[in-house]
Amino acid sequence: MGTVYLRGKTYWMAYRDSSGTRVQESTGLTREDEARELLRIVERKVAASLTHEAAQLEGLTVRRYFERWVREREERGLSSAWDDRTRLERHAIPRTLVISR
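^ thats the sequence. predicted structure below, dont judge the formating
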């Protein structure tokens, strides 16, 4: 949760952004209630961006990331894309083992 404080005649706010870094900035406002409302809006935006980032990463596996990465390289026409795909398939991405009884 952020905070609102007075510096001179202007209210400032301090909050943590989506990366966790503390941000201090002027609201440009001289009324505390307006500054607090602005802080609430900013905090809602930060919370929404965190939720959006988490949703994008949900279900992302090494295999899915690798497939997307190689596909993008192939679409760009990079000659090393085939080598990258082969090396990753042979050495980095585990194969599914089927164990029979």
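Strands lie at 3-7, 10-16, 22-29.
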